[in-house]
Amino acid sequence: MSSIDLGAANFESTISENDIVLVDFWASWCGPCRQFAPIYEAAAEANDDIVFGSINTEEEQQLAAAAKVSSIPTLMAFKGGKLVFNQAGALPADALDQLITAVRELDMSKVEQA
User: Which domains does the chain possess?
Assistant: First the structure.
């Protein structure tokens, strides 16, 4: 499954209604964003049990501000409706794969106790 466009209208429901959601905050003028896009799309195609969302920060400035995105690309991961990863900068494919594995294996009962 390829990534889906997220915006103010569907962001909260997507996060709350899916077990794992990765969100890429990007802009068309951003070189690193354009370099990361094919890596992100390939991961989306390879991991159909995870929702991969993309937020165009130019079109969704209020959403990006609410998410405290200060630099792009920024990748966030949500599990069980909770933010479990937030990092600016484009990840290489192997690092994205490692992140996906870590989020899958994350024991949310331990996260919620912390």
Answer: 4-113 (3.40.30.10)
